[in-house]
What we know:
By secondary structure, this protein is an alpha/beta fold. The chain has a single domain (55-223, 295-439), classed as Rossmann fold. It contains 14 helices and nine strands. A five-stranded parallel sheet has the order 6-5-7-8-9, sandwiched between helices. A two-stranded antiparallel ribbon has the order 1-2. Helix 3 crosses helix 13. The chain is globular, with a radius of gyration of 25 Å. The model is unreliable at 52-63 (pLDDT under 50).
Amino acid sequence: MRKLKTALKIVFINLAILVLLIEGVSVATYFKTTGKFFYAQSGSRPIIGFSTLPTEQRREKEITQQQLHPYFGFADRVGLSHRLSDSQTDHVSNNFGFASVHPYPFKRQNPNQFIVGILGGSVATYYSYFELENNILSAQLKKLPGLANKEIIVLPLAMGGFKEPQQLIVLNYFLSLGQDLDLVINIDGFNEIVLSYINYKDGLDTSMPGDFAFMPLVNLATGNTSAEELQLTLQVLKDRKTLKDSITSAETSRTATGYLIACLRGRMAQRRYRQGVFDLNELRISSTRSGESLVQTPIRAIANEDQALEQIVASWASASLMMKQLLDQRHIPYFEFVQPNQYHPTGRVFSKDEATIAINPASNFRVPVTKGYPLLLAEIGRMQQNGIAVQSAVNVFDRVSEDVYVDDCCHFNARGNRVFGEYVANAIQQALSREDRYTLPGGR
């Protein structure tokens, strides 16, 4: 009995030493990776090696949280709650699926209201949320004597995954319903290039809504869902839960060993999740090519990739011009901003942590941005000659030392949204300051 106790004691001591050694190695690994001592940090810790907002998760959500729309292609479900990653404010989809406290169309309640419409995709949507929470544009507009006492009302008319001509259609549609507007902002460029390019690669016309959201909804609506798709969907949902659990475990772990195990588990779950969503997306897209769908998805013959990109840019510029002309008739100022993106090289220097999250060499966004953004930016000069108030914001983060990107797609954190929001607000305020109706007290 005494020998057994001695043996157990030795085993216990050895196990304790082993645990301490493992924890020591984990602490050293954490320090080497982050440059910080694990136990010196309080609260949640940043995860390493995988993104908290993987692009694929947004794509999978868009399949389940959006519905087909007869005019816009697709729209968010009514009552769907949205929130910026670093905010505590919910933005709920209204009667048309746009996140606003106002039902649409919103009619002016009194002459003192100044109504701003925001068009675009997800970056424009997040810009709207950030503006609603922080009033950056509103503060700049109120510096103009003609708007100093106005009630600035911001209406999000943007939605994740939208691209031209969806913005043009949305604008026409709501104007036809009597929507009042005093200023329109369109934040675009990325979706126009990337989603149109992916459409081209997948055999869908570049002008159609992005097939990553549109075609799965078409399949669901027409009952064109296979057993293989259902099985793969269940596996994707399982891997997504594992990924979310790993993120929570890593952020709240009390030991460095637990933290590293959660990060490794998260990396593996994210790889499986990304591959699953990719396979599911390919399966859903290919299944609509059978000719059995009840939804017409026309295509135009395109000789090659270069011609496709030229067509995409030309369609973008044409839609912008039509929006400008439409608003000119109503004396409504129109401003357009080409959003920055990490895959378009500028003078920005990425930190190691930001690069890990933001730059994905295997991303299907990298190639179209690299090839398409130069064509898009080259078109801006010709658009300006046509009177369109469009400008490039691709360099807006070049002098920002802090991290600004939160995923490997295109989205910004609070710092990025503030920098971008200030850029947009300053540009619009400076442009409007050259017009009497905004510079004279008592303007409209």
